[in-house]
Amino acid sequence: MTQPTQYFRTLSGDPPNAGVPPGVAFFHVHQPSAPTATPAASPPPPPYAMHYYSPYLDPRMFLPPQQAAQGPPPPAPPAPALLDARMFYPPLQTLQAPPAPPAPAPAPAPQQWTPPGASLLGQQAPNFEGVNYLYPQDHTVLHIIWDVHMKLDTPTTFPAFEPRLFPTGLTVAELIRRLGAPTTDDSKFGVMEVHQLGDGRWTAGTTVLLTSDLAKKTLGAIGWGETRGFAAKPVWIKVHTAT
User: Over the chain, what HEC string results?
Assistant: First the structure.
């Protein structure tokens, strides 16, 4: 009867050579395993780009690659409105130099002085070949009756007359000459003051001939002053011819 193989044991109680008989060698043969699906490589993260937004930095510069690869970052908040210096200062045009003062208006041309005697009753004196006439100060109105054959004591129609303005400083002799008395015989010509009675009748007044002393006096001196024909009764003068 065959006896069983006896093995020596090591001090630790285990069989020597792990229980493998002497002369037996073991080789480890690598058996390839079934191929496994290789997970798809994730796409590399997009390269970082340095963007600078004044006065702020792009927040993507500080995100890790994994977070940046998950999706685009949220948009950056809008930059706050900057303070404008013009909000605290007046407009620029107010700081400009003031405009130049306007040119002074030209001095008015000096007016030609007009003497008081250049007009009479609002009418300008006539001009005689460049020479202006100067009126006397005081005048009177004489109503001249031209009909030398007028009958004073016989009622008649109202005679033809002409009112004229004479200076009161004019002499009676000069008045007779200006009314047309000739210079041949002064004793026959003069003027007669007549007074109106009404109903076509007249009465004789003062008669002044060229040769009389009254002819040397002025109209104002014999009572034909500046008030006659205005505030006082008018003066009626008949051209007189001595018969």
Answer: CCCCCCCCCCCCCCCHHHHCCCCCCCCCCCCCCCCCCCCCCCCCCCCCCCCEECCEECHHHHCCHHHHHHCCCCCCCCCCCCCCHHHCCCCHHHHCCCCCCCCCCCCCCCCCCCCHHHEECCEECCEECCEECCCCCCEEEEEEECCCCCCCCCCCCCCCEEEEEEECCCEHHHHHHHCCCCCCCHHHEEEEEEEEEECCEEEEEEEEECCCHHHHCECCCCCCCCCECCCECCEEEEEEECC
